[in-house]
Amino acid sequence: MLIDSHAHLDSERYTGELPEILERAYAAGIGAILTIGIGEGPADMHCALDICRQFNGQPDMPRLYASAGIYPHSTHEADDAALARLEQLLAEPEVIACGEIGLDYYHQGSPHDKQKAIFVRQMEIAAARERPIIIHCRPTDNDNACWDDTLGLLAVHWGETGLGGILHCFSGDWQQAEQAIQMGFLISFAGNLTYPKAQPLRDVAAKVPLHSLLVETDAPFLAPMPNRGKRNEPAWVEHTAAVLAELKGVTPEELAAATTKNFQGLFRLTSNV
Question: What stretches in the chain show pLDDT beneath 70?
Answer without folding.
Answer: 271-273
